[in-house]
């Protein structure tokens, strides 16, 4: 019996990557043109809006972005006055990143656009299918985290 051959077009990790890139690219174009944000910068703003003060290391762990990407995005957002660095009372070697008033205003403007884009992408799908898809993505993440380490 001949071993199963890899067909890239039917390979699920490849399909996930292609789909993720298409969605990320459309989001990136919208955020860049409307708000001057890159995807990593938007992720930082969103995570900080959800969590309050958080370290760069914790952002990296939560988003799976590498240290350099998180650092560059944080520097850019601090330079634009959207983030502030505060001393971390629990660890003197790190800082907590917090949204400034301008950062909170930006989040308030971007979040509805993000939700609208998500709605447009998934409008053609049954809500039960979307729920099942999100469940499957979370399960894939959990399995991948256990086998990838």
From TrEMBL:
Entry superkingdom: Bacteria
Swiss-Prot/TrEMBL keywords: DNA-binding, Transcription, Transcription regulation
Pfam families: MarR_2
Record domain HTH marR-type: where: 1-142
PANTHER family to which the protein is assigned, alphabetical: HTH-TYPE TRANSCRIPTIONAL REGULATOR PCHR
Protein name (database record): MarR family winged helix-turn-helix transcriptional regulator
The organism's taxonomic lineage, starting at the top: Bacteria, Pseudomonadati, Pseudomonadota, Alphaproteobacteria, Sphingomonadales
